[in-house]
Amino acid sequence: MSSKPPRTKDRARPGPGKDSGRKPNRGKTAAKSAARTGGPAAAPKAHGAAAHKAQRATAHKAKSAGAGKTAQPAGWVVRAAPGLGRTLLAELRHARLLGQNDRADLLWQRNHDLLFAPRLARTPAATELRSAEDMHRCLVYGRYKVSDSQLERLAQLLQGQRRRLVVTADGRHFNRHDLARFLGRELSARGVKLDEAANTPLLVFCIEQAYYACVPVRDADQTAGRDRRQVEREGSLPPPIAAAMAFMTRPVDDDTILDPVCGSGTLLAEAGGYAPGARLIGTDQDLQAVKTARRNLKSFDTAQVEHADARALDLPDASVSLVLANLPFGKQYGDVAENRSLYAEVLQEVRRVATPRGFRAALLVSDRRLLRDAARQTGLRVRHDTAIRVRGEDAAIVLLDLPAAG
Ligand SMILES: C[S@@+](CC[C@H](N)C(=O)[O-])C[C@H]1O[C@@H](n2cnc3c(N)ncnc32)[C@H](O)[C@@H]1O
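A: This is the predicted complex of the input protein with S-adenosylmethionine.
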C-alpha cells in the first residue's frame, strides 16, 4: 500500500491531522483493526480524480442513507494507569464483558493505557472493572481525518446536549489545538452546543492517527465501595492500581489477605471489593496509618488492622493465603539504602506466614531487582512482573508464589 496520503474531499479541506504514513501507536491498534475490519474511517486506498469523485458520491450516499437512522455509539473506551492495559483487558474478559475472540484494541497515551472495544456484552456494573480509571461511550472513532459522515453521526449523538470540548493528542499526527478548532466549527455548524462552561465534556482522544470521540460514563470514584473510604493519606495508592494488583491474584472469599505495610488500607479495601467474605489483615508501624486504615476498612466485618512491624508479625506460621503490599519506595516512606534489608526481612516474614498451598502475593516496588533478590533468598518464586507508572514514577508489580513442594 502506498504511504502517500489519500486524496479525498477531507484532505482538501483545511482540517487537522496529517497522514504521516507512520505506523500507529505500538502493538495492535484501533487504526490497524479499523483498516482490517473496514471500520468507519479506514483510509481510502484509491487515488486520482475518478476515485475522488466516487468517494464524494459514496460519502453523500452514506449521509443520505444515514439521515433517517438513529446513530448508535461506536463502542467503549476504558482506560487504566500506564502499564495496566493488559490487566484491564483480562478483567474485561474475566467479567465476560468481552469474549475471548472479541475485538479490543490497546493503545498507549502518555498517562493512560487506553482500551477500545466496539462491543461489550453489557454496560459494566459499578462493581465491575475495578482496575479501570475511567470508562466512556465512544461515539465515533476513526483515523487520519474526521470525515463528514463521522461529523454527522457525532452531531446526531450529541443533539440536545451541552458539552465542553476537550481534545488530547499523543503522537505527531493530530494537533490538539487545530483539531479542537476544527471540531468546534464543524459541530457548531451542525447544531451541537459546545460550551467551555459546560460540566460534561466531549472528550476526543487522539493517539497517533487514531481518534476516539467519547463521553464519560464512569470514573474511578464511582466504582462500588469506594465511597466507604473515609480518610486520605499522603502516598496512598490510587484505588484502580490497588484493584489491578488485587485482581492479578484473583482473591476469593476463602482467602486470608495480609497487607503488612497497609498505610491507609487501599489494597485491602480493593481486595475486599473482589472478595467481600475474605479475612483482611493490615499492619503498619505508623500509628496514624493504623487509625486511618481502621476507619477506611470499618465497613468490612472481617478486617483487622494492627500496629506492628512487618518484619516481626504476630501471626501464626502458614496462616495467610494472599499478600498484597506497596512496599516503601524509599522516598516518602523509608530509605532507598535501607530497602535492601527491609525487602529481605519483610519477605522472610511473608514466607513464614504463607500457606503451603495456594499462596500468592502481589507486591508493588520501585526496584524490582531488589525484590527479586529478596524473593530468591527467602524461597519465594517470582511468577511475573509488570512495569507500571504510579503518579508519574516508574514501579513494578511483582507476582510471587511458593514453588510446589518436593
Ligand atoms: C507506600 S506506603 C503504603 C501505602 C498504602 N498502600 C496506601 O494505599 O495507603 C508504605 C507504608 O509502609 C509503612 N512501613 C514502612 N516500614 C514498615 C515496617 N517495617 N513495618 C510496618 N510498616 C512499615 C509506612 O508507615 C507506610 O505507611
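Residues 1-24, 26-66 have pLDDT under 50 and may be disordered. The two ends are 57 Å apart (CA to CA).
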